[in-house]
């Protein structure tokens, strides 16, 4: 709720702009890219098939696998999202 007792709404656009502008997601984004590059399957798929819809789908699946992994990326991303959301919420109070 804001100071007048109304509910504070944060739009997706406002949230994404804050996430990008503050650079909060730069470090995890680079980690994700590095993990994808370390995956030899990623390189082999790209070399063999090239830039097709199938490759894009496989890369997307690999990306989500990294994001959801238990090696810290999932919790790191959750922490960043919560932090940015809370900052936006406090700005709007």
Describe this structure in words.
The chain is mainly α. The chain has one domain. 73% of the residues lie in helices and 0% in strands. It contains five helices and no strands. The protein has helices at 12-21, 26-38, 40-49, 53-68, 73-91. Helix 1 (12-21) packs across helix 5. The radius of gyration is 18 Å and the shape is elongated. The chain starts with 11 loop residues before the first helix and ends with a helix. The mean pLDDT is 76.
Question: What's the layout of helices and strands?
Answer:
Blueprint lengths: L11 H10 L4 H13 L1 H10 L3 H16 L4 H19 L2
Helix pairs in contact: 1-5, 2-4, 3-4
Fraction in beta strands: under 5%
The overall average pLDDT, rounded, is: 76
Helix content: over 70%
Q: Major beta sheet, specifics?
A: none
Uncertain ranges: none
Number of strands: 0
- How far apart lie the N and C ends? 7 Å
Q: Any descriptors?
A:
93 residues, mainly alpha, elongated, 5 helices
Outline:
The protein is mostly helical and 93 residues long. It is 73% helix and 0% strand.
């Amino acid at each position: 709720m804001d100071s007048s007792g109304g509910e504070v709404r944060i739009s997706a656009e406002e949230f994404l702009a804050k996430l990008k502008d503050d650079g909060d997601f730069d470090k995890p984004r680079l980690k994700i890219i590095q993990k994808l590059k370390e995956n030899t399957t990623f390189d082999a798929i790209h070399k063999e098939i090239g830039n097709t819809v199938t490759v894009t789908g496989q890369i997307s699946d690999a990306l989500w696998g990294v994001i959801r992994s238990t090696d810290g990326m999932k919790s790191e991303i959750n922490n960043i999202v919560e932090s940015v959301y809370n900052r936006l919420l406090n700005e709007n109070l």
